[in-house]
């Protein structure tokens, strides 16, 4: 603790076991992504692939980038980035769906 300001400078530390478990989960998700790529799910393939990708992104951001131990401002910036990504994906999908020259 800094006696002049009264703030603590200690950061929470995750155990090696936690990092190993997240690493194993990422490996499993990668294998699952590869397996899903070989299965024909039709238009649902993209949904499954994006769902797995979002889960992997959350694991990396929360544990390896330490977002879960960060300040509220950092969490707000991360959420803002995700909202921006969602907006761009939504606009792209709206553009794709509304094109009449593409045969569905």
What does this protein look like?
The structure is a single chain. By secondary structure, the protein is mainly α. It has two domains: 1-69; 70-104. The protein contains three helices and no strands. The chain has helices spanning 16-37, 44-64, 72-97. Helix 1 (16-37) runs antiparallel to helix 2. The longest helix is centred in the last third of the chain and has 26 residues, at 72-97. The model has no long low-confidence stretch (mean pLDDT 87).
Q: What is the element layout, followed by pairings?
A:
Blueprint: H1 16-37, H2 44-64, H3 72-97
Helix pairs in contact: 1-2
Give the fraction of residues assigned to helices.
55-70%
Which of globular, elongated, flat, extended, rod-shaped describes the shape?
flat
SS element count, helices = 3
Average pLDDT number: 87
Question: What's the count of strands?
Answer: 0
Please report the distance between the alpha carbons of the first and last residues: 62 Å
Order of helices and strands: HHH
Structural class: mainly alpha
Estimate the strand proportion: under 5%
The whole-angstrom Rg is 20 Å
Low-confidence stretches: none
Task: Kindly give the count of domains.
Answer: 2
Main sheet properties = none
Features:
2 domains, 104 residues, mainly alpha, single chain, 0% strand, flat
Offer a concise description of the structure.
With 104 residues, this protein is an all-alpha fold. It has 3 helices and no strands.
């Amino acid at each position: 603790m800094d006696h002049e300001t009264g703030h603590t400078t200690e950061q929470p530390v995750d155990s090696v076991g936690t990092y190993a478990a997240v690493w194993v989960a990422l490996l499993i998700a990668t294998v699952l992504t590869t397996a899903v790529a070989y299965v024909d799910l039709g238009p649902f393939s993209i949904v499954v692939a994006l769902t797995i990708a979002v889960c992997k992104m959350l694991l990396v951001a929360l544990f390896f980038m330490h977002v879960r131990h960060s300040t509220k401002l950092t969490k707000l910036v991360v959420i803002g980035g995700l909202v921006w990504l969602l907006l761009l994906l939504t606009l792209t999908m709206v553009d794709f769906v509304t094109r009449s020259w593409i045969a569905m």
